[in-house]
Amino acid sequence: MNREEKAKYIDDLATQLNDANVVYLADTAELTVEAVNQLRRRCYQSNISIRVVKNTLLAKAIEKVEDKNFGELSTVLSGSTSILFSEVGNAPAKLIKDFRAKNPKPLLKGAYIDEAVFIGDNQLDALVAIKSKEEVIGDIIGLLQSPAKNVISALKGQGGKIAGILKTLEERA
After folding, report:
1. How far is residue 105's CA from residue 35's CA, in Å, rounded to a whole number?
2. CATH number listed for the domain at residues 3-130
3. Are 82 and 25 in contact (CB under 8 A)?
4. What pLDDT, on the 0 to 100 scale, is given for residue 40?
5. How many CB atoms lie within 10 A of CB 23?
6. CA-to-CA distance for 96 and 34, rounded, in angstroms?
7. Which strand (E) or helix (H) includes residue 5?
């Protein structure tokens, strides 16, 4: 790869990093070709883009991105690195955890999710537990509806009692 090709590669990678809100870095070294193909297939099925990158080129691309602060993410760039892009914050973490049920790797090096940086494989369980945007919206709607449902049911119940009392009073008079 000559200098012009490297510069274009870095620019393309920087554009991808700038556009993505969910970026995972994983160590996929020592996986067999068959295991890598399975991982790629699962990524494709889960709408996750996976790409093997050179650490030096990724570090330069991270430096080029001005709109985002990737924090200490560049400190984990050693050995073989694969980068995973997704729209859902916990999808790559779930995929990695599920894939590791049968394989020793990939290991999570780090992740960037909506301005939060996670470093190390020990963060995998925390990343799996992160709720997606749709799940959070559903929880909020459920919480907002709960008091309204209670008020409506109370009014219905009390309304029946009040109507009964008024009818009884009317009959007495």
Report:
1. 9
2. 3.30.70.1730
3. yes
4. 92
5. 21
6. 16
7. helix 3-19
